[in-house]
Amino acid sequence: MLIVGNGTVLTFDKDSRVISNGGVVIEEENVIAIGEIEKLISKYPEAEYKDVQGKIIMPGMINTHMHLYSTFARGMDLKTDQPPKNFVEILEKLWWRLDKVLNEEDIYCSAIYALLDCVKKGTTTIFDHHASSNLIDGSLDIITEAVRQTGIRANLSYEISDRDGHEKALDGIRENKRFIKKAQQEGNSYLGGMIGLHASFTLNNETLSEAAALADELGVPFHIHVAEGIADFYESKTRGYKGVAERLNRFHILRPGTLAIHGVHLQEEELEILKNNDSYLIHNPESNMGNAVGAAPIKAAIDKGVTVGLGTDGYTT
Ligand SMILES: [Zn+2]
Q: Which residues in the chain land under pLDDT 50?
């Protein structure tokens, strides 16, 4: 038994209590009591005591959209005299170049660094979206090793895409299937998986159908970038849809628990599609400012009853 105390406790329960000079009592994996520190120490005199010296004690934060592999791209010099002019060029000149050269050591080291930073900053759960197009098979196991070493709770996915050809998309489907089945068999509540999809504009109809069939088979939802840049919206329009969410809904990608990341260029009526499918809209303000893609309709989404989460998109932890 452990008492963590002498700090300000923020409960984030239905009463949103703030307890000055508070503490929490932990037994095995559970918090069994919360209150003023003197009362807790006298009630549980046998417990080990950790003095936090006035810091805040609160539930761990959940990062609902992360790319651990992006760690080393922070401040990266693109070594070009023609810097990206728009979001698609940022993808082409940075991210899609980076993900092709990642090897086993890069994947592990970027993950362990970012996960340790999560521990330091108070983030205890992450939803990661991984890409390494020349090391797909087994890539999620490399991240798992780092996850286990840090004790973070993680949901992992491989970012399926047709941008490097359909064979690579099929490899991505297989990696998600292999990893999710393994995690399900293990039954560890600290590790799980979703099916990762890059974004509507890099996925053909066949791949979306195959991914949806896999989601039915495994009983898991999706983790996908939705209408982050305007190009994603125009591509769905060209295909005859009102927007990205309408296309994804046609292929049953938006289902209960699906993480729709960004949603900057979602149309107002598409928020209803998220709501009706119990999919979540994940807001990444730091990333949206960094890529200059615009602002997501978060207020309208909340007003419509869509559940909204926060992610960092790899910018921070
Ligand atoms: Zn992202």
A: none
Ligand 1 centroid to Cα of residue 34, in Å, is: 36
| CA 315–ligand 1 middle distance (angstroms) | 9
Judge: domain 61-310, CATH 3.20.20.140. yes
Q: Please state, for a pLDDT cut of 70, what percent of the chain lies above it.
A: 100
Largest CA distance in the chain: 68
Query: Which residue has tokens 């918090």?
Result: 31
pLDDT tens profile 140-168: 999 999 999 999 999 999 999 999 999 99
Whole-number Å distance, alpha carbon 249 to ligand 1 midpoint, is 20
Cβ–Cβ under 8 Å, residues 102 and 135: yes
Q: Tokens 């490399």 map to which residue?
A: 142
Q: Ligand 1 centre from 23 Cα, in Å? A: 36
Q: Dig out the tokens for 45 from the structure.
A: 């005199």
pLDDT confidence of residue 77: 83
Q: Is 158 helix (H, G, I), strand (E, B) or coil?
A: strand
- Rounded Cα distance, 124 and 63, in Å: 8
Domain range summary for the chain, segments of one domain joined by +: 2-57, 61-310
Residue type, 287: S
Whole-number Å distance, alpha carbon 52 to ligand 1 midpoint, is: 34
Measure 120 CA to ligand 1 centroid, in angstroms: 22
Distance CA 223, CA 261 (A): 7
In CATH, which of 3.30.365.10, 2.30.40.10, 3.100.10.10, 2.60.120.260 is domain 2-57?
A: 2.30.40.10
How many angstroms is it from 258 CA to the middle of ligand 1?
A: 14
